[in-house]
Amino acid sequence: MMPIPRFWREIKQRYKGIGSVCKNCEKMYFPPRKICPECRRESFQNMEPVELDGRGEVVTYTEIHEPHTEFDKHSPYIMAIVEMKEGVRLTGHLVNVDLEDVESGMKVEATMRKLGEESRDGMIYYGYKFWPVDE
Amino acid sequence: MLSSEKRYLLEVSDLRDVAIIGVGETRLGELWDKSLRELGIEAGLKALKDAGLKGDEVEKLYVGNMSAGKLIDQEHIAPLIADYAGISEVPSTRVESGSASGGIALAEGFKAVASGMEDIVVVGGAEKMTDVGEQEAKDILSSTADQEWETVFGATFVSLYAMMARYHMEKYGTTKDQLAQVAVKNHSNAAKNPNAQFPREIKKEFVKNAPMVADPLGMFDCAPISDGAASVVLCPAERAESFHGKPVKIAGIGQGGDYMSVHERKHICTMKATERAAKKAYSRAGIGPRDIDFAEVHDNYTITEIMSIEDLGFFKKGEGGKATEEGKTDINSHIPINTSGGLKAKGRPVGAVGLNQAVEAVLQLREDAGERQVNEPRYGLIHNIGGTGASSIVHILKRWS
Ligand SMILES: [Zn+2]
To answer: What CA–CA distances, in Å, run from B257 to A101, B132, B239, B261?
Structure first.
């Protein structure tokens, strides 16, 4: 697992789903970027934070049976790539649903959860997870 | 900015042609009695011997290695290997680009010779993965994905490929049978390779019924964790015939890049890095995918081979699974893929993989590949992916005459 400062540096973005938008081309990014890959240098110091709505749909998914040590207790669990309403995509746990009931295109919502058990460095990781919602 | 108007300071024709004049590799597997430096030296010495060199001639050493720092707690390994090889005075550099470290080290060696900076260059790749436990080695592989935005949320390395697999299956109708066929074929090829970690055939049912690792990928959809090393000796083509009877030419190289995280890529089961690398390599070699007679592609998971044979232009997007099932990638079929057994069955010493591939391609082009020999090949392609596809490198090798 990565060192604590590396995780904490962007804890706010992970907690609240804060991405960034390029003021040059209006394209939105999550995780937040300092430079827009479309506009490159012209976007530098021209990226503004923006909070995601939190709703999206599943693009693809898997059920993990051999997790990293920190996630052992959750095994097996479902990971998904989710496309948010704003068009950005992210990777996260999909909870409160069985594999048989998951399908691509399924509507989900981000929620704040504990990510892993206390790791060997005494840290508890928090961040977003997803769960299914009705339309 | 890359564009068709791009001007190079040196025209491609100003670069020197580069030949591979010697190859060597260790057996791959869990080699508990061999250290990283021993593996590196064994492969290097075999390559020097193959080239008919003593060792004094070496002007530069590149070493592809992904993670000696984490795997054996040793950084600065290029001079370490040079030192123990008895050539401590030779300048040496480690090259890292995840699992593409070996392939990209080869590209750096190529550039050193092509540019005229050096004449005799040794490029090695070495990885010692089994000094840590299997779980830890897998965690280390995962660190080539984006730790802050993928793995911290619980994604494992294989799970990211599993999501590409599901996407490919849903979009193109690729089946678990087709994935399994990749493993069956590569094990069958490895059975003819004395250096392979798993030189034995396996049955499709066995692959399909193996315990799940990350759905839809099971245990036998995954390449193993391996120790091993491989090495090649490069020199200017004009000098090649003075060293060895059967040199091989490097006809083209191309490296590509892409977003680090899988979720940032719009087309989840296409690796743009590979498409970009292949395009440059074909263009520099002045040929296209149809001219390639065999290829070693990066099959860390079965799905990766299917995606890669599409991204490299051998089959249309979405048709890789079907082509595999129809036997079109078998030895002496349409386009033989991974005659060595690939990462899947020959083995996956990550940072060495690109060099293992080069060794196989050279043996094939010299027609020294024994039982797994492809019929009179002219061009061979090798393809090495870093991480989940944020870097990719393609080399096209050509028979000498
Ligand atoms: Zn922009």
So the answer is: 36, 30, 33, 12
